[in-house]
Amino acid sequence: MGVVVPGCLIVGVAVVVAVAVAVIVARGFVVMAVIVARHGGPLSLRAGVGPRRAAGGAGATSSVRPRYTRPVSPEPPPPYDERDAIAARVVQNATGEAGPWTLEVYPTLRCNLSCQFCDTTDRHRPAQRELDAERWGRIVDEAADLGVRRIMVLGGGEPLLAAGTREILRRSRARGLTGFLTTNGTRLERFVPLLAEIGWDEVHVSIDGAAPETHDRLRGQVGAFRQSVRGLCALRQGAPGTRRGIHTVVTRENVGELADIVRLAASLGCARVDFDHLIAYRPEQHRVALGVADRAALPQRVEEVLEVAGRLGVETTAAALLDLRGAAAPPASGAPGLGGAPCLKAWHHLVVQADGRVSPCCVLAGEGAPVESVGTTWRADPFLLRVRSTMLAHAPLPRCRECSQNILVHERAIRDRLPAGTAS
Ligand code: SF4
Looking only at Cα atoms, what is the longest distance across the chain? Predict the structure, then answer.
């Protein structure tokens, strides 16, 4: 007990401080004054320390170069850019046989929150029969055997509710995969010992407001903000080597808090904040989607976010919010075939959802057949083959209009890295 009690106290104090900071932020005060007073120096220097990993998958990052308030020298070497390796994998898959670079898994569609804008959980569809832990373990093994290097453990629903998630995390690390876990954070605290034990790389927590009441309203549960911040604090204390990030869906309810969310992230020691536009097609989603005035004010808000993020050393995808593609199809480039394809996901990415059905991306989740062996599915799943042929013809499927701008920015960056003349 002599060891446990002080640890709890430390976490408890950290939670109280973090929540207090968030409240101050929400009321428009200058939170950095508090942080500087507590830490004796700008937190940006803490948040920005350490090697930068390449932006991952769906959360492609417009990396914001931190503007430190103290001189830093010498310049660190440029980080390894995963997109170069993914481009090489695309070429391998187009000209011969390799596996996907990334495996994205949704262990469950069940969730313990009721987010206003969410359409992916089983609130709106019959409950699925989920793959069990043993099958998930074999899927990770088959993927690793095929050359998969990255894994994303996401929802669907809340992955930390699923029986298979611990096995996925353990097996992934045992097979040398790197990756990230995205969670609503409400159950994160109890997973911290495992994440520390296996040396998990990165955790993203969904936070949709700098003010607790904004987040709780959007997430449909009073106290959700407190639980999620508590989870991030516990992670910081118990698994300090695990990189932390925040993911935010931008709505009319939180668009005025974007810069404060970045400040909150910095105060929690998070390395990045990914912002995504809400793709609205259900009435409850339209109710919280950005209005005309919100969109008109967006450039100014994004400018503020980038300034704050740069100053605090937090990476962010905020710049992509300005690309209001609307419901337009993902654009091709002028090059023929693969070299100009609107999206290359089907050559480097495989999604397996809770019931085992596959797709090349989250937007098209569940459209393919149930996974056989990962290798057989990757080579022969009819839906994957169809997506590849539509992309080669520069005629994406109609549902590709729903695609996230963050994904398309990432895909464009990979396409730009293909060798000149890549055509098929
Ligand atoms: S929705 Fe279409 S464009 Fe978007 S990632 Fe999926 S396949 Fe690519």
Answer: 67
Point out the ligand 1 atom lying closest to the alpha carbon of residue 402. 1
Dist CA 95 CA 89 (whole Å): 10
Q: C-alpha distances in angstroms, 15 versus 22, 71, 154, 226?
A: 11, 31, 25, 8
**Taking the mean position of all CA atoms in its chain, how far away is CA 252?**
21
Q: Tell me how far apart the alpha carbons of residues 256 and 272 are, in angstroms, rounded to a whole number.
A: 19
For residue range 339-381, list pLDDT tens digits in order: 999 999 999 999 999 999 999 999 898 899 999 999 999 999 9
185-213: b (≥16 Cβ within 10 Å) or e:
bbbbbebbeebbebebbbbbbbbbbbbbe
Distance (Å, rounded) from C-alpha 340 to C-alpha 201? 33
**Ligand 1, atom 8: closest residue by C-alpha:** 343
Supply 95's token pair: 């000209």
At residue 151, the pLDDT reads: 97
Q: 182 — phi, psi (to 5°)?
A: -110, 130
100 within ligand 1 shell (Cβ under 6 A): no
Mutation probe of ligand 1 site: the residue of 403, 409, 411 with most atoms within 8 A of C-beta: 403
Q: How many CA atoms lie within 13 A of 88 on its CB side?
A: 6
**Picking from 47-61, 115-129, 209-223, 363-377, which range would have the lowest pLDDT averaged per residue?**
47-61
Give the integer Cα–Cα distance in Å for 378 and 384: 7
Adjacency order of strands within the sheet including 150-153: 315-316, 272-277, 243-250, 202-206, 178-183, 150-153, 102-105, 349-352, 358-359
